[in-house]
């Protein structure tokens, strides 16, 4: 929790002010989560300060909210291309990504539980940048990272707004896919790839996750033989959720001892007559 508050204040996300009479302060709450490794082990404990966005009013606290994310097909295509070309795939995670988005609206939030300033309990925070939970937070972050990539010479794909391509010289290329605060990147020039990571870590608070291992529920394994993907942990979680983790595998999942009959006692229907009947009725209705 203290790390979250420190990140917010370091980023100059808010300012403690007197609450205007004509404005309402939105409540905030703490959300706790455990981040896991692909093998299920705990990576780290995480506390997030979240705004109660359901209290926001359209046209007053927010306007546009939509922000695109990378499609799964795009990520799979990048993985396939890297496997074909023999490139390495890397991953970066932006710490508190939404805190970087500049707010245009005038938004006030209450002081968080456990971190109320003594002697200033009646004051509220005016947000200069977005917090998690705000309806416009994803859009403000996307606008921020999109403008930064444009300044760095990246070209945004026309059909995939979260895919960015940067060319250097005739042959060198760098590909970056963005999914909220996760970046997957690859390219044929190691120096170009390394410089991208250095510049990103200078601009934003980043976690260098190294080679891509886990993304959107897909487990990725890279070695000299190629790139291999699977969803073992995802499948195990589904089985556990429905109480079938200890079930026996079977090639043809049919009901045990089910007896199939050629005639089950139902009335026989001529399929062609049924189709012609519906076709005639449709044309009759159109004509009439």
TrEMBL record:
This is Uncharacterized protein. It comes from Trifolium pratense (Red clover). The lineage of its organism: Eukaryota, Viridiplantae, Streptophyta, Embryophyta, Tracheophyta.
